[in-house]
Structures
1.
Amino acid sequence: MPRLIALFTAAIVLALPAAAQAHGLVGRRDLPVPAWLFAWAATAVLLVSFVGLGALWREPRLGKARERRLLSVPAWLEIPFGLLGIALLGLTIYAGFAGIQIDTANWTPTAIFVGLWVGVPFLSLLVGDLYAAINPLRAMGRATGWIAGKVAGDALPAPLVLPERFGRWPAALGLLAFAWVELAFPGRGDPSQLAVLVVLFCLVHGVGMSLYGTEPWISRCDPFAVWFGWVATLAPVRWDRGTLYGRAPTVGTAARRAVPGDAAVVLVAIGTTTWDGLSGGDLLGSLTGDLATEVAKTGLSATWANAFVLTIGMLLAVGFVTGLVFAGTRGMISPAARRRAAAEASKASAERKADRGDEPRDAPGKASGAPTSVKPRSGPPSVRQLVTDFAPALVPIGVAYAVGHYLSLLAFQGQAIPQLLSNPLGRELAPGTGGWLGTAGWTIDYSWLSSNAIWYLQVAALLTGHVASLVLSHDRALERFPKSRAARSQRAMLVVAVIFTCTGLWLLSAV
């Protein structure tokens, strides 16, 4: 308990500084309620939630919750949605190459960093897995496979099998690569360079789908399909072969079982979003600039020196978040269980050495020449396995950080999507014309949502996400551990939730 109290104190202290800023937020120093009070209130809400779950939630419920069939749509609707995705992909590539090379006037940067990265997951929280319907890679893969089947028939070779040990690690690496482009790549504001990266992305995944099959490759290697698919599990609806089912939020997350690599996907999403907020604030903004100046003295150009520093910072942020989660997960295993497991492992190792002749076979208690049977490993599960099992409980935290960080970007820069869609190349139009959709003259209204309103919405998202994470983790603990142990196993994860909450509030606290 003293260690637990110390960790709680350290977590709460994190909420007191007001030195960092998050993306696109202004005017929060005039709030009627100070940020530190929000942090204390958020911590109290998490504590009350934890105690209430332990006292009232005695059986796993979420995974057994029922869904209700709402409606069905014709299967052929997949075709127009797929064509829409392909058209948007083609427009993004074309505009990047042929349009004006100004990031705010060209369709490509906004389509990637606002429409895809922010808009799609936000909508998925409401309507289900939207990206699965409009995924251009899946649509092109299915179309190509159908044509190849018609042409080659039985002569078409069977797809290769992806090794199980790969899990979804390729998707995690792909998500990390995308985050690097967003946060560190010097050409992230250059539409033509972004278009080149989009083409390379399509080529890599096109080759993968042709070798291993469209569905296996997309479900395990497409970073957007994997992460957006996890986000959609929080939605109150689910699509399955044209049928829409209604359910309580988070039910889909609890019912889905993670595979190796899923935890890495969520940790990358949390860590990179955290770094985005840190690197843009006063706390680290000047530090990264000074470090980039020192790195540039080695002969590296200033832009790539800055990219190098930002890359290291991003990796450290992901590593810190990963270490924090692993520490919390390790706390699920009681010290006594760890001691028993260590003793069993030591005994098994000694027996293996004796069988190999590393120790005398006539050691006390052993008959000379008698075969030794090594018992299979028993005891508590490994920390790595527990991280995989509890990865779904981290999804609400990743979504909460995304909402907290990108809400203002979507609220304001999202208004530019109709304007840019009417004039995707960004060229000057004749006076009085509005482009091919008639919306090129639209302007962004910065007054429709006040900075205070954005702040309260972000705080609500952070708190809701972390409470949902506690609920999912507790429900999974009831499935994974004996009932008498379930609530106690979550104490360390409660500390992790408090640290994440206070860190998120800190990132939103001041400009």
Note: Residues 4-32, 359-378 have pLDDT under 50 and may be disordered.
2.
Amino acid sequence: MDENPINNEVMLQKGAVSTLRGIFQSFSYVGPAADVAILLLGTVEFSLIATPLAIIIAWLIYGLWMITPYEFSKFKSNAGSYYAYSAGATPSGTLGPFALFSWMGENFSGQSFGILGVAGFIFAISSYISGIPYLWIAFAAVITLYMFVLPYLGIKISTNYMAITGILELLVLLVGSIIIIIRLGAHNTIAPFEFPAGAIGSFFFGVVFSIVDFTGLGTVTTLSEEVKDAKKKVKKSLLIAWLLAGLALIPASYALVTGWGLSNITNYAASPDPGLVVFRNYLGPVGFVLLIIFTINSYFSYGVSKTNAVSRIWYSGARDGVIYPKFMSKLNAKHKTPGNVMMVWLGVSFILDLILGLIYGPTTAGLVLLTMAGIAIIVVHIVSNTSLTLFSHNYLKIKGQSSILLHYIAPTIASALGFIVIYFTVESNIATYIATPNAVNLAYLVIVIFSVLWVVIGATLVTLYYKYRRPKVIANAGIYDAEVDD
């Protein structure tokens, strides 16, 4: 485990990413302003006035999930992140292909949040724009091109952009929320932080939606090979990004729900742009315009963060010879970025989003794909949680660095919570289709079934192939550590 088997002519740019840039790689992936504008609708629909409590619980659950990358980042700096951690957890490397294939399911579906989400948001603002046929395709093409160009030009350029706009986005959400809360005056109440009586099942399904809001907080680990002094600073970036995500979304959820009016909360999710309505009512035209600007930028910065993360994951897999072809391990000589991966991934993603967007419209297509993204990434977390326990048992125990609480108990609880979230997702979509068997609900049901088959059957078959046909490949997978001398 102390040798690097990699000898590429061009390497990722070591030491290019500071702690601040790492923080906003993760924070931008969350896309808090875009969450406030779109994803929060799903939480409010089920958790109603208790939405702020649902957000808090989801944030704490995700914090528990962040223990695994936090702990692994102390011992390995590899762009493969959860894939590399899983592969290196045992001498055989068996969990590597399973994690990588499962993550591929999220990679091909989660990008719809940016590519299709921005069109859905703009359409919600203007009925005139939404009435122009196929205009959303132009929006999708523009953001896809942006998602390629900025990350391709270098990790410093893309992370600088995310840090600057991320700080401004956080300030707009936090200051705006505080002003709304102050203007609410006597209408402020603790009711949004109380468990709803008689609706616990619906409330916790709202928590499921809220968990998706925090997806991506661990992606600074994909920049591990480029972070300066990674084994100390990646864990710091993870912790601060998690705290900032809570700071951005928890006060905002309270301000929006209470500002909308608790007695009228059932109409919140029915509105195409309730976040904008509340900001306009309490902050006037300035607050309204600022939220629009930073929500649109939130989709773009999410897209840049997504490209950074996915390109490094695939690059790491291709470098190891796992799933992805070797040409994807080639880096641009000038910018030191995985340009081949970016072109292939974004090309396939755009075509997939285009097909589903033409069938269901951009907003519905995006939400359908995000259902698969949620299931797939939770499975990746479950695999990596298991890997942390195995890594601790196989390697840390003999060094006296094993922790019962952090390496055994916490990952087990985190995985159990992940299974619960998947169960609620599957059960809810089945029940919804049975109750209302229309085309859209069928799409959700099909994507849920496909997602489960992808991670259970697909990932298992890929794992068995490497285990029995290419055992030496996975035995060496995930070994590379950027902070070990070549």
Note: The chain has 19 helices and no strands.
3.
Amino acid sequence: MSSLPIAVTCGDPAGVGPELIEKWLQSNPSLASEVVIIGPNSWLEKLPLSAKQKYAVGDSSYQIQPGKPDKQGSAIALAAMETAAKGAREGQFRAVVTGPINKKAFAEIGYPFPGQTEFFADRWKGEAVMAFAGGKLTVGLVTRHLPLKEVPAKLNSEEIRRTVLALIHLRKKMGDQQPRIAVCGLNPHAGENGLLGEEDEKIIRPAIDRLQREGHSVTGPLSADTVFYRHLQGEFDAVVAMYHDQGLTALKTIDFSTAANLSLGLKLIRTSPDHGTGYEIAGRGKADVGSLTSAIKLAHLLSL
């Protein structure tokens, strides 16, 4: 499997995805043979790659206008995702790295998913765990793109367990023999023994107790206001957060230019940069390639 290339999609062509790919190719010429770039033909023609390393999607006349998204660009980004997902499923690619998309613009063209994680889970028939790694922190999310008011009702012990096990598998691939996983509580101070909410004791703790009985090094529920500091100090190898901003506020403060997004728990590997389309800087050469570099490195590591 490791001899197959990694598919890299352009993301929204009007965003920073195309220029990040160009920067990565310039910085990593010796690794270019390991990727297949998927995007609009007018852009692909300019890349220093062989014909077999390019896959054009969409109308061949389409011209990228940085910072000016449109429905045609969204359609190209979606077509690139479909091509990558199908190619990986059929054994053409060993992993997929996706460029950033505009979720609202995707919804306007009929895209039914809240993000790319859910798209690949659907196309590859699995249940994904959204996680982030590549910098100083490793973070997994139990729930993903939900309004905050819906989070408590969506929490259950099985999803917490699945997230922990996915992070254990990831950290072992990254070199830890016995990964130490910290699990956040949902409420302030992990509920203060029920004073500030019952979810921590009734939902989160039973999942942790079961994992501990199975021999895993799992600690919690812990107060989210200190657990990331403890992770940074080396006490833990990864943190499980209950909802999106609980985990990603800390991660993006520390690792904005170094972490990558991973869809764990699927039969195939998908990673992406941990940032959005960056329309305001697209085409100006200001976009930081660090997160894309981490995404490609992790896709390589996880698909070995």
Note: The CA atoms of residues 228 and 250 lie 7 Å apart.
4.
Amino acid sequence: MDEKKFDLITMGRSSIDLYSQNIGADFVDIKGFDAFVGGSPLNIAVGASRLGAKVSLLTGLGNDKVGDFILHFLKKQQVNTDTIPRIDGARTSAVVLGIEPPDRFPLVYYRDNCADSQMTIDHVIAANVPEYKVLEISATALNIEPSRSAVFYAVETAYENNVDVVLDVDFRADQWKDLRSFGLMVRAILPKVKIAIGTEEEILAATLQDAGQVKISHQQISAPEIKGNIDASIEKILKSGPEVLIVKRGSKGATIHYKDGKMEEVPGFPVEILNVLGAGDAFASGFIYGYLQNWSLYKSCRLGNASGAWVVQKPGCANDMPYHDELMKFVESRGGL
């Protein structure tokens, strides 16, 4: 990679995350919450910073106490916050989360008039994207204006200035009025993306064209069942532009799909799960850190898998991202990269 002033800038959601203190309790029986921070780009920024990368976050915060809370945390994590505007008339986002291991983790978003959706092209210009080696974007920011145009502008700027674009497919069904529009926006931005990362469900959503492929119940609204041919969806995404598509597969690890049809399976690090929320963001932070070190994609994904395994054993997301030395010690105890 060419010499740049900074390593990574992540762009999109940020929030205060209120996590249930009563692990295992049904959501209606929760008695209290712990205040953490969250949002996929924020989590990735913190994770990469803790591993040693020079990172900035481009998001929007309201002129409110919740925004102060998030900024205070980010500064302690050595994430550059000069790229974060405070937006009058908007509110910092919030998420409320339950923890019911092994497989129920209900969450409720509060994103009406949220500040990170009010990012503009001018905010992108002020962030000076060409100074970075990697721009990471999360697809939820494509759901509404003006953040949609801001993301497209950031990606165009990166593409024209030798900044590698990494897309976290980041599918949140309840943030889209029509699920098909999610796929439209993702497919529109893919030609300028170098590496895309997503779960099988997110990849199917990114190629969704027929509403008949979607099954949604009241319990599924945040993660509906989407039917489709995953191999065809992977092929469609790779034909749209990215050189690489990484499919996150939880405890099974990850699969790297290349444009030429080559595929690599990257094993995970099996652990006992406490909370899966944030595991994908931890994967991305570990992977991007390895990528910034010019490691192979296989080795970078192994570190991503290790970071994800670390976080699923913890109650939080950004607050529980691993630091470099402790993650490397964990990796070595499990056979290395």
Note: Residues 217-221 have pLDDT under 50 and may be disordered.
